[in-house]
Write a structure and sequence with these properties.
The protein is mostly helical and about 90 residues long. It is built from two helices and no strands.
Protein backbone atom coordinates (compact mmCIF):
# COMPACT_ATOMS: atom_id res chain seq x y z
CA UNK A 1 0.00 0.00 0.00
CA UNK A 2 2.90 2.39 0.67
CA UNK A 3 4.23 1.75 -2.82
CA UNK A 4 0.88 2.74 -4.32
CA UNK A 5 0.72 5.87 -2.16
CA UNK A 6 4.32 6.76 -3.08
CA UNK A 7 3.53 6.17 -6.75
CA UNK A 8 0.42 8.37 -6.61
CA UNK A 9 2.38 11.04 -4.72
CA UNK A 10 5.10 10.93 -7.39
CA UNK A 11 2.55 11.18 -10.22
CA UNK A 12 0.80 14.07 -8.45
CA UNK A 13 4.06 15.94 -7.88
CA UNK A 14 5.10 15.33 -11.49
CA UNK A 15 1.78 16.81 -12.61
CA UNK A 16 2.26 19.88 -10.40
CA UNK A 17 5.80 20.27 -11.70
CA UNK A 18 4.60 19.97 -15.29
CA UNK A 19 1.93 22.60 -14.68
CA UNK A 20 4.50 24.97 -13.15
CA UNK A 21 6.88 24.39 -16.06
CA UNK A 22 4.05 25.00 -18.52
CA UNK A 23 3.22 28.32 -16.85
CA UNK A 24 6.89 29.42 -16.96
CA UNK A 25 7.29 28.44 -20.60
CA UNK A 26 3.99 30.09 -21.50
CA UNK A 27 5.08 33.35 -19.88
CA UNK A 28 8.40 33.23 -21.73
CA UNK A 29 6.61 32.51 -25.00
CA UNK A 30 4.15 35.36 -24.46
CA UNK A 31 6.99 37.79 -23.73
CA UNK A 32 8.85 36.62 -26.84
CA UNK A 33 5.76 36.94 -29.03
CA UNK A 34 5.02 40.41 -27.64
CA UNK A 35 8.60 41.51 -28.38
CA UNK A 36 8.36 40.13 -31.90
CA UNK A 37 5.03 41.89 -32.36
CA UNK A 38 6.53 45.20 -31.24
CA UNK A 39 9.42 44.76 -33.67
CA UNK A 40 6.98 43.95 -36.44
CA UNK A 41 4.93 47.06 -35.68
CA UNK A 42 8.08 49.20 -35.71
CA UNK A 43 9.17 47.65 -39.00
CA UNK A 44 5.70 48.28 -40.39
CA UNK A 45 5.84 51.92 -39.32
CA UNK A 46 9.24 52.35 -40.96
CA UNK A 47 8.00 50.70 -44.16
CA UNK A 48 4.91 52.89 -44.14
CA UNK A 49 7.04 56.04 -43.82
CA UNK A 50 9.27 54.87 -46.66
CA UNK A 51 6.24 54.18 -48.88
CA UNK A 52 4.77 57.60 -48.08
CA UNK A 53 8.08 59.20 -49.01
CA UNK A 54 8.21 57.30 -52.31
CA UNK A 55 4.60 58.24 -53.10
CA UNK A 56 5.31 61.89 -52.34
CA UNK A 57 8.38 61.78 -54.59
CA UNK A 58 6.41 60.11 -57.38
CA UNK A 59 3.47 62.50 -57.10
CA UNK A 60 5.87 65.41 -57.03
CA UNK A 61 7.49 64.12 -60.21
CA UNK A 62 4.08 63.66 -61.84
CA UNK A 63 3.05 67.20 -60.87
CA UNK A 64 6.30 68.55 -62.29
CA UNK A 65 5.73 66.65 -65.53
CA UNK A 66 2.14 67.92 -65.76
CA UNK A 67 3.34 71.48 -65.25
CA UNK A 68 5.89 71.08 -68.01
CA UNK A 69 3.21 70.29 -70.60
CA UNK A 70 0.63 72.85 -69.49
CA UNK A 71 -0.22 75.17 -72.34
CA UNK A 72 -1.73 78.61 -72.24
CA UNK A 73 -4.91 79.41 -74.16
CA UNK A 74 -2.84 81.31 -76.68
CA UNK A 75 -0.54 78.34 -77.26
CA UNK A 76 -3.52 76.04 -77.69
CA UNK A 77 -5.06 78.41 -80.24
CA UNK A 78 -1.74 78.61 -82.11
CA UNK A 79 -1.56 74.81 -82.23
CA UNK A 80 -5.13 74.65 -83.48
CA UNK A 81 -4.26 77.08 -86.26
CA UNK A 82 -1.22 75.02 -87.23
CA UNK A 83 -3.30 71.84 -87.30
CA UNK A 84 -6.01 73.51 -89.34
CA UNK A 85 -3.45 74.72 -91.89
CA UNK A 86 -1.92 71.26 -92.05
CA UNK A 87 -5.34 69.64 -92.54
CA UNK A 88 -6.21 72.13 -95.29
CA UNK A 89 -3.18 70.92 -97.20
CA UNK A 90 -0.84 73.78 -96.56
CA UNK A 91 2.23 71.80 -95.48
CA UNK A 92 4.31 74.93 -94.99
CA UNK A 93 2.98 75.50 -91.51
Amino acid sequence: MDKITDGLKTVFLAGVGAAALTVEKSQELIKDLAARGERTVEQGKALNQELKHKVDETLGDETDRKNEVTLTKEEIEALKELLKKHEDGDGNA
